[in-house]
Amino acid sequence: MFPVLIPMKQRLTLCFHALHNGIVRWMKPRSTSLLLGMIADLAKGKSQLLVENALLRKPLIILRRQVKRPACRKTDRFLLVRAARG
What we know:
Blueprint: H1 5-27, H2 34-42, H3 46-63, H4 74-85
Helix pairs in contact: 3-4
């Protein structure tokens, strides 16, 4: 390869790693203690509770599909991650 392209390839690799790490961090659920979670639940508004209920119902909708092994579709995964992040 040309010597000029090697640093460019390394930069692209670093960019892709940074992007991957950012996506992984974004998708990882927040970790809180049980007590803090309970206190946060008491302070939630009606719209937040509706979103949480929708999030909890989504796996049930997936399980009710008439197939032997229900599979999550890409839209299911996206909606679950989006709703989990608030």
